[in-house]
TrEMBL record:
<feature type="domain" description="3-hydroxyacyl-CoA dehydrogenase C-terminal">
    <location>
        <begin position="184"/>
        <end position="280"/>
    </location>
</feature>
<feature type="domain" description="3-hydroxyacyl-CoA dehydrogenase NAD binding">
    <location>
        <begin position="2"/>
        <end position="181"/>
    </location>
</feature>
<dbReference type="InterPro" id="IPR036291">
    <property type="entry name" value="NAD(P)-bd_dom_sf"/>
</dbReference>
<protein>
    <submittedName>
        <fullName>3-hydroxybutyryl-CoA dehydrogenase</fullName>
    </submittedName>
</protein>
<comment type="similarity">
    <text>Belongs to the 3-hydroxyacyl-CoA dehydrogenase family.</text>
</comment>
<dbReference type="Pfam" id="PF02737">
    <property type="entry name" value="3HCDH_N"/>
</dbReference>
<dbReference type="InterPro" id="IPR006108">
    <property type="entry name" value="3HC_DH_C"/>
</dbReference>
<keyword id="KW-0560">Oxidoreductase</keyword>
<dbReference type="Pfam" id="PF00725">
    <property type="entry name" value="3HCDH"/>
</dbReference>
<dbReference type="InterPro" id="IPR006176">
    <property type="entry name" value="3-OHacyl-CoA_DH_NAD-bd"/>
</dbReference>
<dbReference type="InterPro" id="IPR008927">
    <property type="entry name" value="6-PGluconate_DH-like_C_sf"/>
</dbReference>
<dbReference type="InterPro" id="IPR006180">
    <property type="entry name" value="3-OHacyl-CoA_DH_CS"/>
</dbReference>
<dbReference type="InterPro" id="IPR022694">
    <property type="entry name" value="3-OHacyl-CoA_DH"/>
</dbReference>
<dbReference type="InterPro" id="IPR013328">
    <property type="entry name" value="6PGD_dom2"/>
</dbReference>
Length: 295
């Protein structure tokens, strides 16, 4: 089965990796070749890690890489595919344009899936002539490790497409969970208010960064505290999802904390920018609270 993945960032290269490792031929599509080259380097590095842990053979690594091709054209990349998974930046206008293009260029019977973490599948499907074939496949980061795929049914998504995507997710070694199309779906409707409340607790001086995360790690058995997790996700992504929740549900409890808004405006986006609630140094795994939040 041929699959196309749109976007070669963290989520896109992880999705491409997993499909290719499980025997699918994968066309990875992005707007520029350097981004695709970086994605292939990341996939290779992650496969090497699996080989080092003896969870993958050198032969399987080579076969996985052999199933990957790269394209800078959507039209060329989606020719002959049965499934497209869009994993571009979490931007509504960008995603809608991508799905217009996919509707034009992908085979008429192809399933069009989005890895969106919060944007309405119904809204995305409405710009196509095949809304019954549009669905959400929300993978978790890091994709090769995390088992969940949140499968989101849009208003018009057919039963047959839903069953097919659930089955494909299982073929990837994942556990699919079917949810309906409401703002934030399940994962982020529950996660983002928790992260936002942690930021509010910091903003109001209830406790410091390390203390808040320690309470949640040791008291609630979370593997990562909510502030560290926010840094890992990207504070800009957290803010965008909270705004989708706030706009879509109209409940003030989803209003983003002013501290989060200011940090995003200041470019303190978390791990990817080098600083968020913690500061990040290349080559170091030490968890160091950002200077601004030190006591």
């Amino acid at each position: 089965m041929n699959v196309a993945v749109i976007g070669s960032g963290t989520m896109g290269n992880g999705i491409a990796h997993v499909f290719a490792q499980h025997g699918f031929s994968v066309a990875l599509i992005d707007i520029n070749q350097p981004a695709l080259d970086r994605a292939l380097a990341t996939i290779t590095k992650n496969l090497d890690r699996q080989v080092a842990k003896a969870t993958l053979s050198e032969e399987d690594k080579a076969a996985t890489l052999g199933r990957l091709t790269t394209h800078t054209s959507i039209e060329a990349g989606v020719a002959g595919v049965a499934l497209v998974v869009e994993a571009a930046t979490e931007n509504v206008d960008l995603k809608l344009q991508i799905f217009r293009d996919l509707d034009q260029y992908a085979p008429a019977d192809a399933i069009l899936a989005s890895n969106t973490s919060s944007i309405s599948i119904t809204k995305i499907a409405a710009v196509t002539k095949r809304p019954q074939q549009v669905i959400g496949m929300h993978f978790m980061n890091p994709v090769p490790v995390m088992k969940l795929v949140e499968v989101i049914r849009g208003y018009a998504t057919s039963d047959a497409v839903t069953v097919k995507v659930m089955d494909l997710s299982r073929q990837l070694g994942k556990t699919p969970t079917e949810v309906n199309d409401y703002p934030g779906f399940v994962a982020n409707r529950i996660l983002m208010p928790m992260i936002n409340e942690a930021i509010i607790s910091l903003f109001e001086g209830v406790a410091g960064v390390e203390e808040i995360d320690t309470v949640m790690k040791l008291g609630m058995a979370h593997p990562m505290g909510p502030l560290q997790l926010a840094d890992f996700i990207g504070l800009d992504v957290c803010l965008a999802i909270l705004r989708v929740l706030h706009d879509g549900l109209g409940n003030p409890k989803y209003a983003p904390c002013p501290l989060l808004v200011n940090m995003v405006m200041a470019g303190r986006l978390g791990a990817k920018s080098g600083e968020g609630f913690y500061q990040y140094t290349a080559g170091s795994k030490d968890l160091v609270v950002a200077e601004r939040f030190r006591k």
